[in-house]
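Retro notes - structure team

What went well: the batch runner handled both jobs without manual restarts.
What didn't: labels got mixed up in the shared folder, which is why I'm recording both outputs here explicitly, each with its sequence directly above its tokens.

Job 1
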Amino acid sequence: MFLTWFDSNSWLLEIGGKRILIDPWLVGSLIFSNLDWLFKGSRSQNRPIPDNIDLILLSQGLEDHAHPPTLQVLDHNIKVVASPNAAKVVQQLGYTQVTVLAHGETFTLNNQVEIKAFPGSPIGPTLIENSYLLKELASGLTVYYEPHGYHSPQLQQATPIDVVITPFIDMTLPLLGPIIKGKNSSLEIVKSLQPQVILPTAAGGDVTFEGVLMKLIQTKGSAEEFRSLLEKNNLATRVLEPKPGDRFELPLEKRALAI
């Protein structure tokens, strides 16, 4: 199993012989609702578009997960699995093979990788987006992805999980509360899911953020602080901090399959 982190929430997961592109932002700027004065993310150069993508996996419909400029340049014939909100984005762009996953539903890619949707991040008062559990069917190895730190109790049915990708930092807006729940949320999910490896997402990398929103957001936490927190709680989960663009093999041991 291999991973490549492109920074922010963008990952390439190589699992079960398949290449799955998760929440890709690879080209252009990141702007919400064309309001660049409110929030704008930029990097010094575009990321290369990966070759031979078997599936695009989208957890949310917001631009930092379903990034229209990136989705526009990707091959529209690539299969897409998406939350209902994210599916609308790719369908409007003309993608031809879109599978919508509601919470609890499962998609199987070529009998090699199983993807199950769980409740993920709340977006506003009524919408709850997706988190995903991916399983390599041949080995039983599992990867769980939730980019805002909102973890469903339903995941208990899949314990133990081998790899967790989720934030380590807290990001909060005054009066509105947490945008990203990192440190304590991640600690609880490690205690609950007993992963071999945990990796941070949603922060860091070769990205510069600006705008009014960034002046208001309060950010706390780091990978080093989280690693110390695991040690204090006698948790053996390894913290990995990938560098943007580097492909690396996950150091995993096969475990007995969860019943």
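Job 2
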Amino acid sequence: MCLHSEEAMVSGTGVRLLAGAMIVVCMTLVGPSAPKGTLFARPLPAGAPEDVVPNRVMTWNICNPCNESGQNIGRAADIATYAPQVIGLQEACVRDVERIRDHLEYQYGLVYQVEYGSVLRSWSRCGGLPWRPGGFGQAILSAAPMTDHVSVEYPDGGSEDRGYMAVTTTVDGRPTRVFNTHLAQRRQEAVRAEQTDVLAAAVARHDRAIVLGDFNAVPDAPELAEMWAVAADADPECRSRATGTCEVTTDWYSKFDYIFLRDIAPAGHGVHLTRYSDHNMFHADVDLTDPT
């Protein structure tokens, strides 16, 4: 409980200093919950959107565990710099996503709804009480309402449970099926191949879809063949064959992160460095203009 200054003040300089420190701590605790609060807000670069960009989507593995100081405040600022309509997060703890969403709203005025695709209840990853650990997996943030939410765990996750989630939401003014996934860790090619078979079959059931995620595989990896058969990457120069033109998305100079588009035209993209993860942010602008 936060004490008012007159309740905390007692004679003596040391106690007065302690009271002042408690007030600062209390401001720190309540600051992010104040609408439009600026206590933690990081100024955005010139030219950053003032509102969500309706035809922009983003994928980002936010890294867990990555214990960078103020990471959720920084993650929110990084997202607000590009203000996508839809964001797919991987390695996401429910509590972290809740804080990111709150910072986006209260610091930058960007209001998102959230759906989760948690596949683990992990105290070591996400904290909480040992008998009530936090959910860990995927999350989708959307500026528009989401419907028909599903969360599917792959039959074989490899060394750690993995899965995909999907929602229907609005992108570029049109209802669109959006998937978000995280495939098995590196050096598990056969497991990833089975996972992409499951995912590609689900994507193929939709005439129009966007697939966000960390696939833990380079573009010419055999296990991605099924995905290339049903969709194309938002980076038009990046194809299933190694061309040397795919932008890298990780700190180890590999492209593991994709925005697959099914019957949707790309209209620009960007890969952005961040201090808060070992993966870069990858965003794409898309064109869902009905050709008819």
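One thing worth noting from job 2: Residues 1-38 have pLDDT under 50 and may be disordered.
We'll revisit the folder naming next retro.
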